Amino acid sequence: MKLLMLGSGTSTGVPRIGNDWGECDPGNPRNRRTRVSIIVENDAGKRVLIDTSTDLRAQLLANNIAKVDAVFWTHDHADHCHGIDDLRVMRYDRTNPLPGYASKVTCDRLRKRFDYVFEGQFGYPTLMDLQEVGQVRLVVGFDFKYVEMPHGPVTSTGFRFEADGKSIGYATDFSEITKEMVSCFKGTDLLVVDCLRRRPHPTHAHLEMAIDFARRCKAKRAVLTHLDKSMDYAALEAEVPKGFIVGYDGLEIGL
């Protein structure tokens, strides 16, 4: 399996509009962060995209990704789904819609907001076939599990993908650690985990919570993501314990 981190930043990215780098060194390219999204690939070359960030087109071009085989959404916040229209190009050479998966709540909201994607319109074909995650357990060669995670007043769906004897977990946008989350991600080979900043936040994990979560899950390695402008790459890399990787746009990890 392989992880490709398309984006590693918070909802406003780094730098924020206005060229606001916060505490991040603008001279370090790993501090330039687009909105969070990843691709998981198995040994057969099948790719699963998690979230369609607002920066999706630029991310796919930067990483030379022409197609994916399925799409999962964690939730419907703008930074995680508003790049959905960039999937249109991937429909051109398909005889059927691209498969997509999300929780019931997220499915309902995506269908309402982007009806043309899931229903077709004005002679254009349906782009995606959207299903609730509880209805399937195997997608394009990946076994997967999921868990609903507290994200302030709403929830975000965490995913665990297994293929070729390895496992990758994706747990972003959570504000509490539950026993169900620990159970879902127990023993993952690689866990990508929410880590907005050092100080606690009402809707996201902070550094101490992210480290605690990965350790409670007994993940073999963990990658920190959803980093804001206070999280300078070099400073954070020198700070994190062994087994933790500071995520950045374009990061690839093979298992």
TrEMBL record:
Residues 34-226 form the Metallo-beta-lactamase domain. This is Phosphoribosyl 1,2-cyclic phosphate phosphodiesterase.
